[in-house]
Structure prediction request, 483 residues.
Amino acid sequence: MESPDKVHSAQFLQQHLDEVIALLEKQQLEKSLVERSPSTNHELVETVLHNQQQARIQEMFAHLHPADIAHILESLPLDQRKSVWDAIKTSHDGQILLEVSDSVRQTLISGMEAEELATVAGQLDTDEIADLAPDLPKRAMLKILRSLNSKERKHLNAVLAYPEDQVGALMDFGMITIRDDLSLKAVKAYIRNLKKLPSHTDKLFVVDQHDVVKGILPLHRLLTHSPSRQVAEVMVTDYVRFPVDQDAAEAARAFERYALISAPVIDGNGKLQGRLCVDSIMDFIREETDEDLLQQAGVSVEEDLFSSVWKSARNRWGWLLINIVTAFVSTRIIGLFENVILQLVALASLMPIIAATGGNTGNQTSMLIIRSLALGQITSANVRRLIRKELALALLNGILFGLIVGGAVMLLYQDAALAGVMATAMFINLQVAAVVGLSIPLLRHKFGKDPAIGTSVMLTSITDAMGFFILLGLASLFLIHAL
Prediction:
């Protein structure tokens, strides 16, 4: 298998994907030709052909990193994905299952026996098994637990005890601990005897006899200070550590802020429980980002790109139904002002301008709020100031774009009253958009809900409906009686 530090370009992966698809199509053609042939040894020929096909697929994937294999599997339709997975699942370790998305992992695991899953998981560390645990059948999980020693079982239970959005669920146990009364020379000798460092080891954790963390010893200090000095003299006592029950999103921001590679995870008494590494944080951020992007559009994160039509439909129906309901509300608002539109046809072509601009303005505000909430930048101390700032911005934008739209309508229709109504409607709807763009994510966050879910859908619906109502209401008050 190729070294994980080799980064393959998108072009390379696409080329490899095309080669895999071409091979699978060729194999399907060979199979259909055998089935049509007059030979009486169909089963024997098909067995030989199947073994050859498996060998070809294994050869194609033999030198790829698990992350690259995961990318290819995610890009294949379900039937082709199954063919590839059946060929490579015994010759590759469980890292592939860790690399693929949750939805794809479920399709791969669903076709595996409990014994297979136990064998695959047996090649993983306990924290990696914990990542797979939610998708594993109970029977497979029991087999895995029986195969672990007492220490590994304890580590696995420790990770599984925490919700997936807490630091404890992301920690691993590949840390090196030392005492502060050792000399640096003794520490170096100890590390040499280990022969292999855990991945992402940039520091050693200094603990007492009760495993309470007293400090950290960065590797650069170990290498640059005199071997005769003691750990207590050169260790760092002002360091970043994370409680096991701390929010993982807060830990992710700390990793970014302090450029961390690893950090100790402690309990309420300061006792070392594990460590948090940058790879786990990156996976958490990626999953959260993907989930937010999908949920903003009303798509379930569990939907596979190639999942069945029925499953995809069920995943999307919820917000589509909400869209239909809100669309009917908008049409009823328009229906209330049918006479206004009939008497002033220009309103029909101008309504989308008000609605679309309001929707875009509201989305700008809501996306800023959602991002700031995710980064922990909004607090009870500054939320009022933020609201005042956004409302002031809405006033400025409302005046500016109201004048622009009013001026454009005046040039097009030579109607000062219509231009005034359009300018006023634009101004009011931008204020509504700002209020809605602030309110939805802030209220969802206040009540413990994800502020990203459905915000865009609800906001667009509200600004559309209010845009129509404001414009047509003003037109009925100030234009129709003037005709």
Observations:
- Residues 177-296 form a domain with the CBS-domain fold (CATH 3.10.580.10).
- The chain has three domains: 10-170, 177-296, 309-482.
- Residues 1-5 have pLDDT under 50 and may be disordered.
